[in-house]
Amino acid sequence: MNKPEIIIAMDLPNKRAVDQLINQFPATESLYLKVGMELYYKEGPAIVTYLKSKGHRIFLDLKLHDIPNTVKSAMRSIASLGVDLTNIHAAGGKKMMEAAVEGLMEGSPDGKRPLIIAVTQLTSTSTEIMNQEQGIPGEVADSALNYAKLAKAAGLDGVVCSVHEAMKIHNVCGDDFIALTPGIRLAGDDANDQVRVATPAVAKVEGSNYIVVGRSVTQAESPYEAYRRVQADLD
After folding, report:
1. What is the C-alpha to C-alpha distance for residues 103 and 68, in angstroms, rounded to an integer?
2. Coil/strand/helix, residue 193
3. What is the Cα–Cα distance from 127 to 138, expressed in whole angstroms?
4. How far, rounded to the nearest angstrom, does the alpha carbon of residue 16 sit from its chain's CA centroid?
5. Staple partner for 181: which of 92, 133, 195, 208, CB 3.0–4.6 Å?
6. For residue range 99-140, what is the model confidence (pLDDT) as tens digits?
7. Contacts of 115 (CB under 8 A, 6+ apart)
8. Could you read off the pLDDT of 72-105 as tens digits, one per residue?
């Protein structure tokens, strides 16, 4: 059983808050960091360049969802930043996802594009919300699996899903198809606005390749100790 990689969600308001957090980790610790909308829209591409210069890997989590040509152009720009992983919404459809891959390839100067994954259903989405507000019948897991198959057909590397769908997606899309799972909480932590959550240990058993840990680390009294607890839970 492979151990998932830990990605820390830098859902923070600005670069100053980022520095305050990272400075609590050993200077030699190379981290995998998620830069999402809040931080990126405040600091812009410079925050990616800054964190890469410190030796960290970057998951740029902007969840693009637009017409294919717009997404392709945006992905061309994202590729030039040297991010390691990025994402789009599977709900944008197969043509949009194919265009995203094309944009990444065109924007990668060395011909090696970043990994790209598609969001299936957000971990804040319950079956009730999906049925009543999105108008999609059935269970969340069924929708996630459908989106995963579509993403694979479009040439993507994997999907964002909850821990509870990861194994089903691997069974259909293959072990090498990435299942990145947010909604990770240490035992006893508040779920906050997430609905479909799990501990790191459960994520490992269920086949997650990457786990995204946010508030359990970033809002802990000692973020580095909390990060070590996540590592211990995986071990």
Report:
1. 10
2. coil
3. 8
4. 23
5. 208
6. 999 999 999 988 899 999 999 998 888 999 999 999 999 999
7. 84, 85, 86, 157, 158, 178
8. 999 999 999 999 999 999 999 999 999 999 999 9
> Is 218 within 8 Å of 8 (Cβ atoms)?
yes
- Other Cβ atoms closer than 10 A to 98: 17
| Spatial contact of 217 and 197, defined as CB atoms under 8 Å apart | no
pTM for the predicted model, two decimal places: 0.94
* Angstrom distance (rounded) from CA 50 to CA 78: 15
Q: Which amino acid is at 99?
A: A
Alpha-carbon dihedral of residues 59, 61, 65, 68, nearest 10 degrees? -20
Q: What is the CA radius of gyration of the chain?
A: 17
**Alpha-carbon gap, residue 97 to 71, rounded angstroms:** 8
Tokens representing residue 108 in the block: 């990668």
28 token code pair: 């030699």
Give whole-number Cα distances, 84 to 52, 58, 150, 225, in Å.
10, 5, 22, 26
